[in-house]
Design goal:
The chain has about 700 residues and is of the alpha+beta class. It folds into 4 domains: about 10-130 and about 135-175, Neurolysin, domain 3, CATH 1.10.1370; about 210-270, no CATH class; about 280-370 and about 570-635, Neurolysin, domain 3; about 380-565 and about 635-700, Neurolysin, domain 3, CATH 1.10.1370. The chain contains 28 helices and 9 strands. The longest helix is centred in the middle third of the chain and has 32 residues, at about 315-350.
């Protein structure tokens, strides 16, 4: 139960302790230093211009430094309130500006925004280092930490104190002299390189397009694929049909086209993004891996993975490596059987020679259609985006009593985005949720959840979160509304699970609320939601044909359920490829020398079940690991699958809408964020520790 249900104006909190007269005249008219008279303190996007970001960030950094100085120079003895809580609440203005900037830089970027990102990143890194390496500040933190057992702290307080002390230690506070300066140099360069990596990957993705003017080459394609390609061509001022490397364009063409030469061209383009040319990322990767190693060594670790995993649910490099090996050993043989079955099927349909990666999507989809008599074309009419959205909202209502109401009075950052008020069963507002569904050149690929602001309580006043879910779903065309593939539907559920983690967050401290948990625990709330995608009891409630209004036929639902584990071993091993590649880069104990592609090939060799294509590579566009915060964390997807398989079995035992189980998951997992060790939270919910076998059993390997 929340003690406070007020959402205060963001400015009142952001400029706490700073009068309006302190704001320089140069910032007059800058919305970031003005009060936001908006619903729930939401950003007034129409007032924010590119010119506002950098001056506001410079000023916010200055204010943050003053706040830290005030803590350091406090004449009173260090206490939990005047040191730990004061640090937690410092930097609110900076968080306000960067919270908007970095969300929009991922979803509505431009050359100008990317330049601003390049400009501000060194400043933010310098500030972070100055705080983390401040000996007087650390001395105050340590003084409180050393007396922790004497203090009257609740669970949240203790976790914040623990995280604060460890955060300093893990950010170089225990370093001396030259080592501190090296730490500054390495982290500053690393922040720039990871930013550049992401920009290169996006630029390389946007740089490719393939225009087709021969109607015979697209005649076989489903209407939704042709319509999407035609719309892309029209948007570019081209005749015919145009393909891009964005998923809603790339994936359907690879799945439904028989034009093997075009698919090879597309596949090679996709898998050579940021390989060579102006956007080459290989040397960035080499240096990123080296810098991470150097940082780990400075802090006393043999490799970067040791440094990262010490602060994860998994806790150590050997545990993660054993975990990946256990899954690989259990599924590799079955994955080879999956590939052999598809190759034999392809040969039966006339394919000559070896099944190549660009053949996979087409023949695996055909085989699925024949074996299960099901394909996306049958399913998509029942997955109109608006209906899916309502169904996802309905699921949250059934489980947690939440309601979602479109709020046109709340400004959005792009015309394609929509804002919703999220209310609890009591009618209290829990959050504002922004949904942004469709691809555009200014948006990064993939799908993600992020926040403009998290949950926190300051001086007895609670601020609720502003959550954004960003996707790249199939666009509507002139002839059809947006009809999702089944994968897009499960992606929606996945990201919505992250959203619920933020929406339902409870607690005093933003840094340990919502999704601010250990990286290998953060995917549990998202992956468990995917399970409802194949539950008949759920689909029967809402899945209706967008034209006729007829419910999804029972036999189609049964086919979806039957196909749930189709090629599950193959896809499991594919995920292990990414996890093992990530670990390879971050378990090095000396800088990588020689050919970077050879390093990748050696790392993923144990997982290879399809032919390797010369010249292609995963690493140069592996944004999760080299620019997205998942370094030594990609294994977490499989780790979370184990958690999700075990956790969802509880719902299966008691009922997929069981209120008691849902409430337990809400109160023990979703609401508590990072208040306690994730294993403690999980056991409190489930009653036992998760077992890898739960996932293996769930795959139904044959």
């Amino acid at each position: 139960m929340r003690k406070v249900a007020i959402i205060m104006s963001a400015l009142t909190l952001a400029l706490a302790g700073c009068s309006q007269s302190d704001v320089p005249a140069s910032l007059a008219g800058n919305p970031f230093v003005e009060e936001w008279n908006t619903p729930y303190g939401t950003p007034p996007f129409s007032k924010i211009e590119l010119k506002h970001y950098e001056p506001a960030i410079d000023y916010a950094i200055e204010q943050n430094r003053k706040e830290i100085d005030a803590i350091v120079n406090n004449p009173e003895a260090p206490t939990f309130e005047n040191t730990i809580v004061a640090m937690e609440q410092a930097g609110q203005l900076l968080g306000r500006v960067t919270g908007v900037f970095f969300v929009l830089n991922g979803s509505c970027t431009s050359d100008e925004m990317q330049q601003i990102a390049q400009n501000i990143t060194p400043k933010l890194t310098e500030l972070s280092n100055d705080v983390a390496l401040n000996p007087e500040l650390f001395a105050r933190v340590k003084a409180v930490y050393d007396k922790r057992d004497e203090l009257d702290l609740d669970v949240e307080d203790r976790q914040l104190l623990e995280d604060s002390y460890k955060g300093f230690a893990r950010s170089g506070a225990l370093l001396e002299g030259e080592e501190k300066e090296l730490y500054r140099q390495y982290t500053s360069e690393l922040s720039q390189l990871t930013l550049l990596f992401g920009q290169n990957a996006l630029a390389a993705t946007n740089a490719f397009s393939l225009n087709i003017t021969d109607e015979a080459k697209v005649a076989e394609l489903p209407d939704f694929v042709k319509d999407g390609m035609a719309a892309e061509a029209e948007a570019r001022g081209q005749e015919g049909w145009t393909l891009t490397l964005h998923a809603p364009s790339y994936v359907p063409f690879m799945t439904y086209s028989t034009q093997r030469d075009l698919k090879e061209q597309l596949y090679r383009a996709y898998n050579t993004r940021a390989v060579g040319g102006d956007n080459d990322n290989f040397e960035n990767i080499r240096r990123i891996a080296e810098l991470r190693l150097k940082i780990a060594n400075l802090l006393g670790y043999e490799c970067y993975a040791d440094y990262v995993l010490e602060d994860r649910m998994a806790e150590s490099t050997p545990i993660v490596q054993d975990f990946l090996k256990e899954l690989l050993d259990a599924t590799y043989g079955y994955a080879k059987k999956d590939v052999k079955a598809i190759e034999e099927y392809a040969h039966s349909l006339g394919l000559e020679g070896q099944l190549m990666p660009w053949d996979w999507a087409y023949y695996s989809e055909k085989y699925k259609e024949e074996k299960y008599a099901i394909n996306d074309e049958q399913i998509k009419p029942y997955l109109q985006l608006e209906n899916v959205k309502d169904a996802v909202f309905m699921l949250a209502n059934r489980l947690y009593g939440l309601t979602f109401t479109e709020a046109p009075e709340i400004e959005v950052y792009h015309p394609e985005a929509t804002a919703y008020e999220v209310k609890d069963a009591s009618g209290e507002v829990l959050a504002v949720l922004y949904l942004d569904f469709f691809p555009r050149e200014s948006k990064n690929q993939g799908a993600w959840m992020t926040e403009f602001r998290g949950t926190r309580i300051i001086k007895g006043v609670e601020e609720r979160p502003l959550i954004s879910l960003v996707m790249n779903f199939t666009k509507p065309t002139a002839n059809t509304p947006s009809l999702l593939t089944f994968d897009e539907f499960t992606t929606f559920l996945h990201e919505f699970g992250h959203g619920l983690h933020g929406i339902l967050a409870q607690g005093k401290y933003e840094s340990i609320n919502g999704t601010s948990v250990k990286r290998d625990f953060v995917e549990l709330p998202s992956q468990i939601m995917e399970n409802w995608a194949t539950e008949k009891e759920y689909l029967d409630l809402w899945a209706k044909h967008y034209q006729t209004g007829e419910s999804m036929p029972a036999e189609l639902v049964e086919k979806i359920i039957a196909a749930k584990n189709y090629l599950t071993a193959y896809y499991n091993v594919r995920q292990l490829t990414f996890g093992m590649l990530d670990m390879a880069y971050h378990t090095i104990t000396s800088p990588i020398e020689g050919d970077m592609r050879e390093f990748e090939l050696t790392a993923i060799a144990p997982t290879q079940v399809v032919p390797v294509v010369d010249g292609t590579a995963i690493s140069p566009a592996f944004t999760h690991v080299f620019s997205g915060g998942y370094a030594t964390g990609y294994y977490g997807y499989k780790w979370a699958e184990v958690l999700a398989a075990d956790a969802f079995s509880y719902f299966e035992e008691e009922g997929i809408f069981n209120a008691d189980v849902a409430n337990k998951f809400r109160t023990e997992v979703l609401e508590k964020g990072g208040h306690e060790h994730p294993m403690t939270l999980y056991v409190n919910f489930r009653g036992h520790k998760p077992q890898t076998q739960a996932l293996i059993d769930n795959m139904n390997l044959k």
